[in-house]
Amino acid sequence: MSDSVLYAVDAGVATVTLNRPDAMNALDTPTKVLLRDTILGAADDPAVRVVVLTGTGRAFCVGQDLKEHIGLLQANDQAALWSTVPDHFAPIALALAEMPKPVIAAINGVAAGAGASMAFACDFRVVADTAGFNLAFTGIALSCDTGISWTLPRLIGHAKALELLYFPRTVPAGESLDLGLATSVVPAADLETAVAELAAKLAAGPTVAYGAVRQSLGYSASHTLAEALVFEAGKMQQTGATEDHHNAVESFVAKTKPTFTGR
C-alpha cells in the first residue's frame, strides 16, 4: 500500500497527511485515489469527530502532479487527463466541505492549485507564517477545479477571487489573513501545537451540532430562504434528539459544565 497519504486517529481527531515531500505533495493518481478514499473513510467513521488535513515537508500541497500530467498529455490520454476531475478532485472537495464534522487545514507550506482548493473547502485554515496560497490554474492555462469556484468567492468575494485566479501569485500568510483566506497565522514552529489545540477543542464540543451548522451554511449558499428554513428545521430536530443536547440543557439548569460525546 502506498504511504503517500498517512492516516492516524487519536482522541477523536483524524489526521490526514499528504506524504510526498520530495514532490511537494503533488497529487499523482495513486495519491488522489488514496486521499479521496481516506477522507471519505474519515467522514464516515463515527469514532472521528474532527478531521485535520496537512502535508509533510515544505509544502502543504502543490496540486496536480505536473510530471504525470505531461506524460498523459504526450500520450494524448484524454480519458485519464480529464476524468480525474469528477473521479478524484470533486469527491475530495465534496467530502471536505460537506462531511458532518469539523475540518481543519494545517497549512505547513505553500498550498497551490488544487492544494489551495482543498484548504478552502475546510472550516479552518491555520497557516504557518512561512506558508502561502497560490491559485496557480491559469498560470498553466487551465480553468479551476476542486470546488474553488464555489469556496473562494464565499471567503473573499467575487472580485478578489477573480483577480487571484486571473493573475496567480503566492499570497503570503499575513496577506492571506487580511484577505480571509487564512483563519489564523502562527509561527511555523507552533503550527502543530496550535492545530492540536483547536482540534482538541472541537473534538470536545457538540460535534453533531457543528456538523449540522456547517451543512446548513453550505445548503443555504445555493437555496432560497424558504428552502433553508426547512433544512434548518430538519437539522434542529436531528440535533435536538442527541444526548449532547439533553445533557447540555440539564447542565445549564444545574449550572454545571456540559460534557459532549458527539452522540
TrEMBL record:
It comes from Kribbella sindirgiensis. SUPFAM superfamilies: ClpP/crotonase. It comes from the Bacteria. PANTHER family: EG:BACN32G11.4 PROTEIN, ENOYL-COA HYDRATASE. This is Enoyl-CoA hydratase. GO terms for molecular function: catalytic activity. InterPro entries: ClpP/crotonase-like_dom_sf, Enoyl-CoA_hydra/iso, Enoyl-CoA_hydra_C. Belongs to the enoyl-CoA hydratase/isomerase family. Pfam families: ECH_1.
